[in-house]
Amino acid sequence: MTINDFINKCENNSEFNNEQIQQIRWGFFSGLTVEQVELYANPKFNWEQMREIRRGFECSLTIEQVKLYATPKFNDYQMFEIGKGFKSGLTMDQVKLYANPKFTDGQMWEIREFIKKNNNIPMNTIKFLIALNCI
Fold first, then answer.
1. Whether the Cβ atoms of residue 84 and residue 69 lie closer than 8 Å to each other
2. How far is Cα 113 from Cα 104, in angstroms, rounded to an integer?
3. Hey, where are the domains in the chain?
4. How many whole angstroms separate alpha carbon 21 and alpha carbon 124?
């Protein structure tokens, strides 16, 4: 499918609003592939969520990394915090410690910062501290 065909298909889908269509177009304008745009061209995402998924790709995150937060169960602020973890050099396993919709974006920030500052602490200890709400 060509980019124009993809955009036309989305524009003809009445489930997308103008802001969502704009995010789809912006993705192609930014040089994203059809595969990347397809990941967020879903009417279940609001335009802010679509923007965060697009920004992840624009910051060179892999499809695997973006897929971790490309789900409607995360709001755009949570998506930002998950993506920020990858951008700051955390591993998939480290980011998965806080990539949970039960955490607010503020809690995600706190956990991410704790992991960054305490990179020498074993993962099981960090999991334990999170479970006890110590972070």
1. no
2. 14
3. 1-58, 71-135
4. 43
| Mean pLDDT computed over every residue of the chain | 95
| CA pair distance 105, 27, nearest whole angstrom | 24
Tokens of 24: 């789809």
Query: How many Cα atoms are found within 13 Å in the side-chain-facing hemisphere of 107?
Result: 14
* In 21-129, beta strands by DSSP E: none
Q: Give the 3-state secondary structure percentages of the chain, helix then strand then coil, rounded to 5.
A: 65, 0, 35
pTM of the model: 0.92
- Nearest CA to 41 out of 76, 64, 15, 4 is that of 15
Contact criterion met (CB below 8 Å) for 52 and 69: yes
Residue type, 12: N
